[in-house]
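hey
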């Protein structure tokens, strides 16, 4: 399989498989880098309120945009998905780790 890239950044993918009413880490924090999400697929077994977060700060669903994608974390913060129920939430995110620029 060939690695894909966006403007020199390696495109990565993380699996979502959660069933806990909590702030679930989907992509671990990377020092000095933002996690920029370009694609999301989420399937819930029942109705479920989901909130994307940069560590503990809500991103407001997919309302945030970035240079490359749908939304992004702050530099050095994990991408988390909070759910309000304990039913299965599955899917994946496609993302890049972008170096913080001043």
């Amino acid at each position: 399989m060939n690695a894909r890239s966006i403007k020199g950044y390696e495109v990565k993918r993380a699996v979502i498989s959660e069933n806990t009413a909590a702030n679930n880490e989907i992509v671990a924090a990377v020092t000095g880098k933002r996690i920029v999400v370009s694609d999301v697929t989420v399937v819930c077994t029942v109705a479920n309120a989901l909130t994307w977060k940069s560590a503990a700060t809500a991103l407001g669903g997919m309302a945030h945009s970035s240079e490359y994608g749908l939304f992004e974390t702050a530099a050095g913060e994990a991408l988390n998905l909070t759910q309000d129920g304990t039913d299965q939430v599955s899917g994946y995110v496609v993302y890049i780790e972008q170096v913080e620029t001043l």
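The mean pLDDT is 86. Residues 5-99 form one domain.
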